[in-house]
Amino acid sequence: MRRNLILGGMLSALFVLAALISYVWTPYDHVALNIPNKLQTPNAVHLLGTDHFGRDILSMIMVGARTSIAVALVAVGIGMGLGIPLGLWAAARQGSWLDELIMRGNDLVFAFPSIVIAILITAIFGAGAINAIIAIGIFNIPVFARITRGAALSLWQREFILAARVAGKSAARISVEHILPNVTNLLIVQGTIQFSLGILAEAALSYVGLGAQPPTPSWGRMLADAQTLVSIAPHMALVPGFAIILTVLGLNLMGDGLRDYLDPRLRVVRA
């Protein structure tokens, strides 16, 4: 529904704006320690309070938003950049050994969640945001490949595709000029959903120490730091927790709204 798109867009824009502003300004230095002011509850000086090192939580949330968005954005870009061509290729070669190879490869990747892939990558290359991006990106590849292939298969039997084949166009050209434009709407919606899942995955990896490393703030690591201090300073856990919830909620609402807006059939049904 349109209100989902508006509300989701506003929530998402809020955190994107916070991330962009953090490049040029934050209320305090997000890595500056101020032990005498540690564990302060939200007040006029520190709007969201301070953590166990006296760091301003609002500043850390703003910089953490940039970390989460950057990791999720690049990971989704990897998934789309590799998954979409693979899906188009598999659909164009439906039933061939190539189609079977691509789809069985997707099944193999699906057998290992992103957290397991991250552990394997970390064991080889060490923890860090780059390895988190690789792990989440690898997991996104089969998602976009499957969706692209499924949507493309239904189009290959349509009359306009048959006309293009009669005109002598190659399978690759048909995939790029006719198939891809007709599945773009679906891919945009799925990209929004995977973006929200990427933020959750980044937070989960950082929570277990496999994501962005100190001193770079991360919402997941902020939650990990707060777990032993919940009874003393609950705001340390509540603030990053709500940041994750609101960001993911906003992206999911925006994805639902985009689906309704871009699909005329759903607009008619809900009108």
Task: Kindly state the percentage of residues in helix.
Answer: over 70%
The coarse overall form would be elongated
- What distance lies between the first and last C-alpha atoms, to the nearest angstrom? 9 Å
Computed structural class: mainly alpha
CATH homology superfamily: MetI-like
Average pLDDT figure: 89
- What ranges have pLDDT less than 50 throughout 5 or more consecutive residues? none
Main sheet summary: none
Can you describe this structure?
This protein has 271 residues and is mainly α. The protein has a single domain (2-270), classed as MetI-like (MetI-like fold). The chain has helices at residues 2-22, 57-92, 97-110, 114-125, 129-155, 159-166, 171-207, 219-226, 235-262, 264-270. It is elongated. The mean pLDDT is 89.
Secondary structure layout:
Layout: H1 2-22, H2 57-92, H3 97-110, H4 114-125, H5 129-155, H6 159-166, H7 171-207, H8 219-226, H9 235-262, H10 264-270
Helix pairs in contact: 1-2, 1-9, 2-3, 2-5, 2-7, 3-5, 4-5, 5-7, 6-7, 7-8, 7-9, 8-9, 9-10
Kindly list the characteristics that best describe this protein:
73% helix; 10 helices; mainly alpha; 271 residues; MetI-like fold
Summarize the structure.
By secondary structure, the protein is an all-alpha fold. The chain has one domain (2-270): MetI-like fold. It has helices at 2-22, 57-92, 97-110, 114-125, 129-155, 159-166, 171-207, 219-226, 235-262, 264-270.
